[in-house]
Design goal:
mainly alpha; Growth Hormone, Chain: A; 2 domains; cell membrane; MFS transporter; transmembrane transporter activity; EmrB-like; MFS_trans_sf
């Protein structure tokens, strides 16, 4: 009897306690968030290094813009396909493959000896990011099925994304000044290796489920449509809306999108089953994240250029001044689950978007001789508070109520919405800013005042996008949805 008791005691001790398994998921979240940090960081960290990079590799201004575009095109274009591949082959496998590819591409970019070499590495980075980003979010949804735990996890996720956005300018300036432009790519390598080596011990293998045939015609047409759209929007900044190249790319995008819609209606196993939008959470969340992507991309671009060209801040100072915004974002991301439990998802998201819009309107009042403490600090904090709630709750809403077999699709959709929304928003807002600046210069305004007037239009346009997102959430998402979560 004693031997049996001892045997039972030993067996019990050998089994991992439920609490340790729960703790492992939070460590897994940290590792997944690190990978997301890389994706967000890489969207801005390269900007500061462009002049140095162009000088070393003999790249003119046209080719320098392709250092950004070569990353954005495959990233935005392959996101939906990447999400669906995760559903078919497993999110863990796709995530690890994406991180490994991103790490290798970053090392190759740092070693680049020519412009062609660098652009190829950047394209591979973007394609790898399109695999890892939706898979990472799908894994978060799988690891945290309980709505309360998921809200906390997405709070951390949103905080990391906010830190990555704000840290890009600062880290880009520090690394380029201290170690040269290649350091902005090499910084990804140790983080990527850490993620690849640690995640397998924290997340179980993908379940062997039913592997339906992949809708290749749908995958080809939607990828072509997204790539052509992002390329057209990127072209607008250099050639304008009526450029033959811009119009041709827009036409290709429209034709490919029409073909995709026709294919999906007839496909027995479509890449994008439109029935997913019957879920009002998914529809409202994706519309909100599309508009948030447009608002935030325009905001961070204009704010960085305004500080450096008008206020004459150096790269380091411009980066440091964004820390209060990032701090407010992290703060609200940590408390957002408690707010959701009181107000519900719908109202929390709408209020966050209206706070963001208010902060942007406030920022638009800053003059050409603004001081940080007097004109920028408080609006930045308000923007950070609104962004923190909007990112976390918007992402949660966009994947709420989705089955595990469509988790990758939902994650790919929300990431695609953010990327395409960012490209559309940036093209529209920068065009409006350019028109405003040109008009003010024609009226005799100083260059500083004319530039400031253009940036003010960007901030006001971003505020309109944020407020529109809040209104759509109130109209589309049911008032009972998310209550008590």
């Amino acid at each position: 009897m004693n031997l049996k008791a001892a045997s039972h005691s030993s067996a019990a001790a050998a089994k991992p306690a439920p609490q340790s398994a729960a703790q492992l998921r939070w460590w897994a979240l940290v590792v997944l968030a690190l990978a997301q940090f890389l994706v967000v960081l890489d969207a801005s960290i390269v900007n500061i290094a462009l002049p140095s990079l162009g000088s070393d590799l003999n790249l003119n201004s046209e080719l320098l813009s392709w250092v950004i575009t070569a990353y954005v095109l495959p990233f935005g274009g392959f996101l939906l396909l990447g999400g669906r591949l995760g559903d078919r082959y497993g999110h863990r496998l796709l995530f690890l493959s994406g991180v490994a590819g991103f790490t290798l591409a970053s090392a190759a970019a740092g070693l680049a000896q020519s412009g062609a070499w660098l652009l190829a590495a950047r394209a591979f980075q973007g394609a790898s990011a399109a695999l890892l980003a939706p898979a990472a979010l799908a894994l978060v949804a799988r690891l945290f099925p309980d709505p309360r735990d998921r809200a906390k996890a997405l709070g951390i996720w949103g905080a990391v994304a906010g830190i990555g956005s704000a840290a890009g300018v600062l880290l880009g300036g520090v690394l380029t000044s201290a170690f040269g432009w290649s350091a902005v790519f090499y910084v990804n390598v140790p983080i990527g290796l850490l993620v690849v080596l640690t995640l397998p011990s924290l997340v179980s293998r993908d379940r062997r489920g039913e592997r339906n045939a992949l809708d290749m015609p749908g995958a080809v047409t939607i990828t072509a449509a997204l790539v052509a759209l992002v390329a057209a929007l990127a072209r607008i900044e250099r050639s304008g809306w009526t450029s033959p190249v811009t119009l041709a790319l827009a036409g290709v995008s429209a034709a490919a999108l029409a073909a995709f819609l026709l294919i999906e209606r007839r496909a027995s196993q479509p890449l994008l089953p439109f029935s997913i939008f019957r879920n009002k959470s998914v529809l409202g969340g994706n519309l909100a994240m599309f508009l948030i992507g447009g608002a935030t991309t325009g905001l961070f671009f204009a704010l960085s250029v305004y500080m450096q060209q008008v206020l004459l801040y150096g790269a380091m100072k411009a980066g440091l001044t964004q820390l209060p915004l990032a701090g407010a974002l992290v703060l609200v991301a940590g408390v957002i689950p408690a707010i959701v439990s009181k107000l519900g998802t719908r109202l929390t998201l709408a209020v966050s978007l209206f706070v963001l819009a208010g902060g942007l309107v406030w920022l638009a009042q800053a003059p050409s001789e603004a001081t940080f403490a007097g004109n920028l600090l408080l609006p930045s904090i308000a923007i950070g508070l609104g962004l923190g709630g909007a990112f976390v709750v918007g992402t949660d809403l966009a994947v709420h109520g989705v089955s595990e077999k469509e988790a990758g699709l939902a994650s790919g959709l929300v990431n695609t919405g953010q990327q395409v929304g960012g490209a559309v928003g940036l093209a529209i807002l920068t065009t409006a800013a350019s028109m405003r600046t040109t008009n003010l210069l024609g009226e005799g305004a100083s260059e500083a005042n004319a530039l400031t007037g253009g940036f003010q239009w960007v901030f006001l346009g971003a505020a309109i996008l944020s407020a529109l997102a809040g209104i759509l959430v109130l109209l589309i998402v049911r008032s009972s949805q998310g209550k008590g979560r």
